[in-house]
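Escalated from tier 1: adenosine-5'-diphosphate holo job.
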Amino acid sequence: MSKYELVAGLETHVELATKTKIFCGCSTEFGGEPNTHCCPVCIGLPGTLPKLNQKVVEYAVLAGLATHCEISEVSTMARKNYVYPDLSKNYQISQFDMPLCTHGWIELSNGRKIRITRIHIEEDAGKLVHSRGNTYVDYNRGGVPLIEIVSEPDIRSIEEAKEYVEKLQFLMRYIGVSDCRMEEGSMRCDVNVSVRPQGIEKLGTRTEIKNMNSISFITKAMAYEYDRQCDLLDSGEAVTQETLRYNEADECTESMRGKEDADDYRYFPEPDLPTIHVTKDWVDKLRTQLPESPEARRQRWMEKLEISDADVQLLLRYREVADYFDKACDGLKNGKAAASCILGQIFRRMETEADKEAFAPTVPPENLNALLRLLDAGKIRMNLVKSTLEKMLDTGKPYGEFLSEKDLAGVDDSQLTALCREALEKNPKAAEDYRAGKEKAVKSLVGYVMKSTRGRADAQKAEELLLKLMA
Ligand code: ADP
Ligand code: MG
Ligand code: ZN
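Tier 2 regenerated the structure:
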């Protein structure tokens, strides 16, 4: 065990998926020609007045509920003053001493709960674009609504930090408040890291690595920072509290500036916006709007549908996939076949993560469900399900187009016996091999039966019959 324990707390910015910005009606869409999603309010012209978008409060409350936060009945907006060209007003409208959500938590797979100090709403700043030796500013992102989710310094390892970020990302997507695309900047983390001797309660001096937009960079930056701070302490030096940036090319952290305190921002109440009142009734209504929690869903699937933990994980990764799976399993006793169709055949046709996230296969879940009901009722077997599903996926048509009455009739015992006899007659070599001790030879005989019934026969029953006939 290392001499020092790592301690980390994360501040995670998540862009909310509202159609319009937080204080004006401009579009929040990512990209676009620079400065085309803008108006006098979101470029911060003097004399304009902000108007709070109610959807922003709604999404932030949903985020709070999903992370077990208390929702404040009264909260206020505040001005955070700083000067930087991406923020033409020279202040950001945020929340300070009265945030919308407080005291939540995220539970990790090791059972530890990472406490969430607060979730507040605020506006995003514009973006600086450096090109040909000049710097330009694009205000399209200015005024896009954000929530900032601040954790307590409860994280004790790089793995915990990674899981925490993944869980947050998953949850926010799952409840539909953000797409959390780190590569597009709709989710970014400030990572605060300190170290302390094992067994010591008192927290060490922290550094803050700003604006991390990839999980792999977060883990690398934390590893670097942990080593650097341990080395400092080992050589009797102190860690300086400062703000760092991660240099991706050199894989190291470097100083951006000394650490600013809340005092430096001279926060004061935002005079242009009223107090936000969130009634208990509204919160209760929003609570009913939340989807069944991933945990509850996992429980239900494992108990009722008998699917494996590994499959649950994959199916739960994207909300659309989870919803599709539930519909495909409607009325079925067992979810294994549905899971295998989705995770195998359907996923195979999806090339990107975005395809899986949007999850709109050519076969609607009702049609897969109808096909799987035939399997459930013992009318067809899995290999026929698979070949039929391929055709359904190719064409988008229901199974009725591809399966005839005969296909659905099944194979009765006398037919099966006749076919087994035929298999033995036509493959004397396989029968001989089997009798000579090559047990595998029976598989080719079963294969013959399956092929001549186009997969309708019960392979296990066929094998038993063949063994009897050869005995
Ligand atoms: P700010 O960065 O705005 O000054 P805070 O002081 O509230 O805000 O802390 C921000 C983040 O830093 C929180 O996520 C908190 O958990 C984390 N943090 C605070 N102290 C430490 C520490 N000693 N080691 C690691 N993380 C810390
Ligand atoms: Mg900070
Ligand atoms: Zn605007």
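The longest helix spans residues 215-234.
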